[in-house]
Model the fold of this input.
Amino acid sequence: MAKLTVYGTPVSTYVRTVRLLLEEAGADYTLKGVDIFNGESQSAEYLAKNPFGKIPTLEVDGELLYETTAITDYLDTVLADNKFSPSDPMQSARMRQIMAIIDSYLYPNAILTIVIQRLIVPTQGGKTDEDKVKNAVAPAKTAAEAIESLTVGNKYLLGSEVSIADFYLIPVFIYLSQTPEFEAITAQTPKLLTWWDEVSQLPIVKKVCA
Ligand SMILES: N[C@@H](CCC(=O)N[C@@H](CS)C(=O)NCC(=O)O)C(=O)O
Done:
């Protein structure tokens, strides 16, 4: 098997997405720390691996791959015979749709705004920008409800088999559930709450997202 190295900070949601897949596949890999909080991800050395300075980047036998959708797609194929992607074309499209909703609408509002403002800013001596948080709740709620409408929610988002969509949403919910806004955002998403009760207890989730 190829030598796999994941570059990134363990607390990053996207790094966790990749690691959840790797752990669920039982793969051997190395996590190489690239700190996004001290400028390391903007160093010339890291920008040579990923010109956007984002984490994660995957190195496969010396070949570099970035963008989490590309990484998870690749790893699913080479490590798991695509078992983390539904074989039914519409279900597979639903999985990609959920991932795109998370990338475009949930992550920016839930993580970049609510979680950063509520959980990170105060630990750095700053003050939560309440207006920013307030303005992010409605779009985050819309995103959660859109995912709710596409999900089975039992046991996993798309049914009995875990998929890449689960690996995307779990790390976002880990942080969002620690904010007071989680209740409002998930008030109309009973299937997601049932799903969350179940998946948050999984050993790989406890291992990767501890
Ligand atoms: N489109 C990228 C997004 C990755 C991303 O935003 N990663 C965050 C951490 S969760 C990051 O690198 N943040 C550091 C920064 O924006 O400088 C992907 O899918 O991999």
